[in-house]
Specification:
It contains five helices and eleven strands, in the order H-E-H-E-E-H-E-E-H-E-E-H-E-E-E-E. The chain is α+β, with helices and mostly antiparallel strands. The termini are far apart.
């Protein structure tokens, strides 16, 4: 009887991983884990992740008063000087909107899903991160509202929102990992 229960549970789990709209999110690599504080929230091992297009993301951002800029003046995902939102997670875009609404601060996105960022499961390329330009309003909001959780392996100080999203101060910008939409 135990074997039948175990096989049934395994079949349901494996079947769920291949269901439409589901993807496997692997555990962080050792190198990635070294760049994050131990208290950082992790996404579950199998979650529904909805990807959106650049056009959808820009429409969402525009409707919330969020701006974006690119050092190359482009949006090609395969060019590191562009700022692309192709394959951005819907929850990441909603998280930026939640931040804009909750903080009341001007938000300018300077990095999206384009190549050239560090890799890993919860990376820019995989749609979990956005970079925001530094501004006094945003910096004060993050530091006064969220919980300081220590420095990443690369020395960047980090703050964690109540929803579990992580804001890393990389000097000239905020590198934000959105595990969810931030309470949208």
């Amino acid at each position: 009887m135990r074997i039948r229960s175990a096989l049934t549970a395994l079949a349901l789990t494996v079947g769920g991983l291949f269901a439409p709209g589901f993807g496997v999110v692997a555990t962080a690599t050792a190198a990635e884990a070294a760049t994050q504080a131990p208290s950082v929230a992790r996404a579950p091992s199998a979650v529904a992740v909805t990807k959106i297009s650049h056009a959808t993301a820009t429409s969402m951002f525009r409707s919330s008063g969020i701006t974006w800029s690119s050092s190359g003046g482009c949006s090609d995902r395969n060019t590191p000087t562009c700022t692309s939102f192709d394959q951005l997670n819907l929850d990441t875009a909603k998280g930026a909107q939640t931040l804009r609404s909750a903080s009341g601060c001007a938000i300018n996105i300077t990095g999206g899903t384009e190549t050239g960022h560090a890799g890993g499961t919860y990376s820019h390329w995989n749609g979990y991160k956005l970079d925001f330009g530094k501004a006094t309003c945003l910096t004060n909001y993050v530091k006064n509202t969220f919980t300081y959780i220590g420095v990443r392996g690369d020395g960047a100080p980090q703050w964690q929102s109540g929803a579990g999203n992580v804001y890393a101060d990389e000097g000239n910008h905020w590198d934000v990992t959105f595990y969810n939409c931030g309470g949208c």
